[in-house]
Write a structure and sequence with these properties.
308 residues; alpha/beta; Nucleotidyltransferase, domain 5; 2 domains; five-stranded mixed beta sheet; 9 helices; 36% helix; globular; binds zinc ion
């Protein structure tokens, strides 16, 4: 595959599917966005949807050689087998994707995990360019993680990187996974919103529900309830990140997702708290992700190029 050749890239999200033809510099030459259909647990529905949008992209650029396709999905993904093992949000279990998609499109197809692929994209084109050991943390409604160790993204047959379900408060709040005190129920944007709303109950703004973005603004204004909720989330994130640093030797932490929009309000105290709890370990640098919601699609393109 030469540098100018394009690959097809598809990012299947909970609410929308983004597809693009991407060049070797990570530029999307043509793209499509469509709503994620329902009924994805039925065999064939996702294959039909992805094959159709890829066909549409290829037809839209006549004369262009597209040889490979990368597809990324959330949940537990076995990239070696090309099977989407499980997604709580999208409802599938053991959905074979890479093989059927290759048959339908005539392209070589790589299947990957959206967040692990997002890390690949940040390494190739974004905030982790050139990194060999890095942790990518996406903080939004939930918390997802991906690890790059010695230049390789860890998969663990799909089970690696579940940072959101590291227990940070034993016996703490119940998590959707069935556990208690997971990082995700303490430090996700949704958890911050819940905790802050609960802390304000009984005040004059009873019943008010605010976004994590608003909580962040109130932290900046030194409002005590907001500062306390934020501090608890930072503490939990620091506990989890410190464990990862100690276990893997990563020296870069890339923060993405909605909560990372708060910038230094999150990165500053988190970096200080992690640095304060390390002794002999390498101190990681903390940066914000650079690619935003393009990371999944560009990561899928990286996977497709890996087939070349
Ligand atoms: Zn959990």
């Amino acid at each position: 595959m030469t540098a100018s050749e394009l690959v097809a890239a598809v990012d299947v999200g909970g609410t929308r599917i983004k597809a693009a033809l991407v060049d070797s510099l990570g530029v999307e030459r043509v793209s499509r966005t469509l709503p994620t259909p329902t009924g994805l647990d039925r065999p064939g529905v996702l294959v039909d949807t992805v094959a159709s949008v890829v066909d549409d992209l290829v037809r839209s650029t006549p004369g262009t050689a597209v040889q490979a396709c990368g597809v990324v999905v959330p949940g537990i993904v076995d990239d070696v087998a090309g099977v989407a093992r499980w997604s709580g949000n999208l409802g599938w279990r053991d959905l074979p994707l890479a093989g059927p998609l290759a048959e339908r499109t005539g392209l070589r197809v790589a299947l990957g995990h959206d967040v692990r692929a997002g890390l690949l994209a940040e390494v190739g084109f974004g905030a982790a360019r050139g990194a060999r050991n890095a942790l990518f943390v996406a903080i939004g409604t939930g918390i997802a993680g991906a690890l790059l160790v010695d230049g390789r993204v860890l998969s663990g047959e799909g089970y690696a990187g579940e940072l959101g379900h590291v227990v940070v408060e034993p016996g703490g709040p119940r998590c959707a996974c069935g556990g208690n005190g997971c990082l995700e129920v303490v430090a996700s944007a949704a958890a911050i919103e819940r905790a802050y709303t609960a802390a304000r109950a009984g005040s004059e703004q009873l019943g008010e529900s605010v976004t994590a973005e608003v909580v962040a603004r109130r932290v900046a204004a030194a409002e005590p309830a907001a500062v306390a909720v934020w501090g608890r989330a930072v503490e939990a994130l620091a506990t989890a990140v410190t464990a990862v640093v100690t276990l893997t030797g990563i020296d870069l932490v890339v923060l993405g997702g909605g909560l990372a929009e708060s910038g230094d309000l999150l990165l500053g105290p988190l970096a200080a708290r992690v640095a304060g709890s390390l002794t002999f370990q390498r101190r990681p640098a903390f940066v914000r992700a650079a690619l935003g919601d393009r990371a999944g699609c560009l990561g899928a393109a990286c996977l497709a190029r890996g087939l070349a």
